[in-house]
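Q: Start with the shorter request: fold the first protein.
A: Done. Sequence, then structure:
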Amino acid sequence: MAASESLTEVLTTTEAQEGLSSDSRSGRIGSAEALIPERPAIAPSAQKHNPRNGNCAERTITQNFHQNTAFSPQLWLTRHHKKSHLHPVHLESLEFSRRKQVESMSRSVKASQCLPKAIFSPKRPLSAVSPLCASPSQWQTRKSSHSPLGNPLPSQRKKVTINTLRALHQRDEPITMITAHDFPSAHVADHAGIDIVLVGDSLAMVALGMEDTSEVVLEEMILHCRSVSRATKAAFTVGDLPMGSYEIAPEQALESAIKVIKEGRVQAVKLEGGVEYTPTIEKITRAGIPVLGHVGLTPQRQHSIGGFRVQGKTPVGALRVLEDALAVQAAGCFAVVIEAVPAEVAAVVTKKLKIPTIGIGAGNGCSGQVLVQADMSGNFPPGRFVPKFVKQYGNVWAESMKAIETYKSEVKSRQYPAPTHTYPMAPEEFIEFARLIESKRD
């Protein structure tokens, strides 16, 4: 009777979940209540942990489990469903499915035997440790892997505003800024407590695979700004104005800035340039849109300055950087990025200004720092050129490669998906399904 008891126990559990009565079952496989055995109770002595023999409670469960899982579809059908005429292929499929389920549960029990004694305390039920000990309702819990990532922040910090940034500057507390180009990259930056998240035009290379920043257009920047802004619940979010969206006239710049704010849902815009763009900055700030300046190395103008070269290395060049920074401050910028400038020069510029400076390759004398997230997290293949000022804090590429290669290997070997990754079907439902197939053949 071990086979029938094992199956009817599973059937009764499933039907109890579905709210089926004995009357509703009688038309298919008959009443199962009379066949339900009582699950063997675990003796109190078996619940004690013995360091020499492992966890007795789990071992007892394993033994009882294997005693009740000697399931044979043919035997069960002979005893409890004699009127059924299933094709042998269907019987083999049912037996294979049951055998895989048994193997999966057995592995779960063996794994739980290695857990520390503290896990099996009286205050913590075994169902919290082993899937075998869990109730069927816990087995049936399903969550989509495509659910939104936008969970509440673990610590609800206040929204960072311009006033927050000014307060940090007054306290001489460094301002943290990092780039993000989509929801996941912005989500992790916001959760990490970054002050400013910049949707930089560097996404042209790190997200869109372009050669340089001059290729990305305004519409693409707005799309990425929308994605980032959905994740930045606390960080102050800035959107870059790409090349070609503000150079023609201040009116064009204002129109572009309004679109980035309204459609991109960011709190400020950034544009490159110094003295020559003061009318443009004034036009945008007079409309009530905060502007983040950018002086020193301006990547959008790399062709006119001889490529990605350090700026301000000569007395004349250093003076030009200072003049540009003072000009954008006078035009209304709330802060200014200083890129690829000698540390000594950037420190002097920072002292001369009343607004914060955000350095990138400009030393630690600035009011804050910014890096491209893909660079600092190591999310790039080996051999890629990385600027001197970048410090790699992680190796996302290597971790991703390891995970994807393991996934590929398990798919090729049919190790994934395992029974634990598939949706179960009650045995009696599968039998009914097979019967319907047979009836259609007739």
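Q: Next, the second protein, separately.
A: Sequence, then structure:
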Amino acid sequence: MLTIYDAYDTIRKEGDFYAMLGVSHDATERNIKSRFRRLAALHHPDKLGKSMGGEISDAHFVRLKLAQDTLLNPIHRFAYDRFGPDMLRWEHCASIRDYIQVGFRSYAPSYTMTVLIMLLLGVMGYLNWGRYWRYLSIASLVLLEVYTVTRPYPPSLLVNVINPLITIFPHQPPLLPFQMLGLARKVSLTISVALSQLGPYFERGSTQAPNVIDQARLSRLEQLAMANEAEATGLLKMEMLPHAKDKEKTKELKVGIRDWLVENTTKVDPGVRQAISSATERRRREADEATSAAP
């Protein structure tokens, strides 16, 4: 929230041509000319002179004149409301369509690079958590920008929702469409960063349940193994019970069981068979070498 407020505060401090002239967003041509004449009378360089900060007044008067000329031209005013001061650099635009096309060409690369980076990070295994919300945020921002730029009037979201909420607070003028879009870009970026920071915590929480299940399964398997071991020990004692008093028979039975276990392990375990095969092969080579070395 602090990041969004800082973005809003920066937008307000930068100002706009309407605030510079002190007119409303729906000011008519007559209102704009009248207001400019009043401000020109106060800030004209010839009136202030060099001794009263004439250079500063020159710059301020030039900005006032630029604001009036931009807002008095319907095409320039349309472009300024939607693209802000950036449109002042687009000198070769002569119609609303020209401004829209140049605006799309100016902002399309940033959106394209954002989507490509998100796709690349997704393929690399990053930004998986919250991926749906990231793409939804980008798609919503693109749709909002396209709708705002191509419509003849400001969007209803700005006029009926955002600006009424802002103007509830004192000394807070309403936003222009380009200011709303700048704030929306900041909100989208903030959401993406928040998802990146919160994702690991939610992923860690989601993996706790499977771990609990695995621990329960391991405990169950351990109990079954212990039960089987106890049962096998009991059966072995019962088998050896007739020979309990005959130590010779008991010893012979133990040796037989041991040999049987070794033999079956050798037959079943591939690793044991491979080790025995390797040892046999090594002894055979040593014997052949010794035979060949004998005179």
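Q: Describe the second briefly.
A: Residues 208-240 form the longest helix (33 residues). The two ends are 94 Å apart (CA to CA).
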